[in-house]
Amino acid sequence: QSVLTQPPSVSGAPGQTVTISCTGSNFNIGAGYDVHWYQQLPGTAPKLLISDNTNRPSGVPDRFSGSKSGTSASLAITGLQPEDEGDYFCQSYDTSLSGFSVFGTGTTVTVL
Amino acid sequence: QLLLQESGPGLVKASGTLSLTCVVSGDFKHSGSDYWGWVRQPPGKGLEWIGSVYYSGHTYENPSLKSRVTLSLDRSGKQFSLNLTSLTAADTAVYYCARPRGRQSWFDSWGPGTLVTVSS
Questions:
Q1: Quick check: helix, strand or coil at residue B89?
Q2: What is the β-pairing status of strands B2-7 and B18-26?
Q3: What are the pLDDT digits (tens) for A20-30?
Q4: Looking at beta carbons, which residues of chain B come within 8 Å of A106?
Q5: Does pLDDT of B9 surpass 70?
Q6: Cα distance from A98 to chain B (closest Cα, Å)?
């Protein structure tokens, strides 16, 4: 039911850069609503990684960065580390119905 | 540091009602602009926002679940609850309570989650 589409999986070797896309529409990202990103390691709750498109909460390594353009957003992980392996979700706000928070379909990052 | 902890039954019957509570604790000062929310995740699947409740008691629900969801906030602000009716197997999920920083905003604190299985 998600209106934010992410690639199911991305992979990279340690030290490489991977990018995860989050594609929405003019009802959410394209309407100007901010995008937030979460990391979910196996068996744990999601953890906020990026807020308001580009802001890193205290404690989040600077190898994580976010951007937004048009109806899409992206999360980049530079200098990929083994501990970055897990699931990543984008989140925004959608107004196609009465207005609701919506998460992306999720992307599994594999460190080769 | 804000701490959130879900509690409720791990197993519920189909067609029944799920009731979950989230306790808010830790080094946290309540403000007049607090929101509290629920998110769920079916096994092996993605995240789904269920709804959020504002400190005033006003609630916002996912349109796809609105007819079955009731959210409430304790007057002390130290716990909030979720009721989900007419359960089916599709409601089997890990349920998280979390704090959104606004109606359209990010979730900055999450509980560990509680697995709820709907049995027939």
A1: helix
A2: antiparallel
A3: 999 999 999 99
A4: 45-47
A5: yes
A6: 7
